[in-house]
Amino acid sequence: MAATLLPAAGWQKLWNGKDTSGWKQVGWGNFVIQDGVLKTTGGMGLLFHENEAFENSTIRVVFKTMTEKGANSGLYIRMPEKPRDAWYGVHNGYEVQIDATGDDWHSTGALYSLSKVSARNNKPLGQWNTMEVELKGDVTRVKLNGKLVNEFKGDQAVPERKMWFEPVRGPRAKKGYIGIQNHGAKDTVFFKEISVKRQ
Predict the structure, then answer these.
(1) Which run of H or E residues covers position 91?
(2) How far is it, in rounded angstroms, from Cα 189 to Cα 183?
(3) How many CB atoms lie within 10 A of CB 81?
(4) End-to-end distance of the chain based on CA atoms, in angstroms?
(5) pLDDT tens digits, one per residue of 1-27
(6) Are 75 and 176 in contact (CB under 8 A)?
């Protein structure tokens, strides 16, 4: 199904709110549609938008969590190819973290273990959060509920990689595919909107 335009704001819906047409799941677990929203289930995997790669645009996701624990997910950006496995987005793109309980390198709005947040702006449990991720050249800017919480330039210094599950360091594509993560069997995150605005 073709993406639809939200006329008032100029945002184009990438997820139609009904089914996963135009999206593909890789890895374990999946996303189920419950009461008109996407819900993470099962183990590590990702659901990616397979119809288009994005550059110089802003991706918006509206999400919520219901429990302090089991709230780990993320938005993958800048994946140069369509992912073939659950870990492709971690090591070949950036994961914009969703986890209100993580430290500054691993909390909502961080580029997982690469660029820490400058502020925390999660809403209370059970409320919808809006995260907007701007892609402009090799610069990535993350706003959470209207507040800038991260700005990262692709060639800036990053911490040394310490754990196997941390992303491989190195430059990322200026144009790439996007996806959302289902992290583990005990992680539950809901998404009600995934949209893009082109610059």
Answers:
(1) helix 88-92
(2) 9
(3) 12
(4) 23
(5) 444 444 446 899 999 999 999 999 999
(6) no
Q: Give the H/E segment covering residue 90.
A: helix 88-92
Predicted confidence (pLDDT) per residue in 105-131, tens digit: 999 999 999 999 999 999 999 999 999
- In which residue are the tokens 């509920």 written? 145
Pairwise CA distance, residues 197 & 57, whole Å? 6
Q: How far apart are CA 35 and CA 124, in angstroms?
A: 21
- Span 82-101, average pLDDT: 96
* Closest by CA position to 62, among listed 50, 48, 46, 73: 73
Percent of the chain predicted with pLDDT > 70: 95
pLDDT classification of 66: cutoffs 50, 70, 90? confident
What's the token pair of residue 128? 């919808």
Q: What residues contact 163, with CB distance under 8 A and at least 6 apart?
A: none
> Which residues have a Cβ under 8 Å from the Cβ of 136 and sit 6 or more positions away?
56, 199
Give the predicted TM-score (pTM) of the model: 0.93
Strand partners, 23: 49
Distance CA 142, CA 145 (A): 10
> Taking the domain 50-156+168-194, which CATH number applies?
2.60.120.560
Cα 187 from Cα 199, distance rounded (Å):
34
Ranges of each domain in the chain: 50-156+168-194
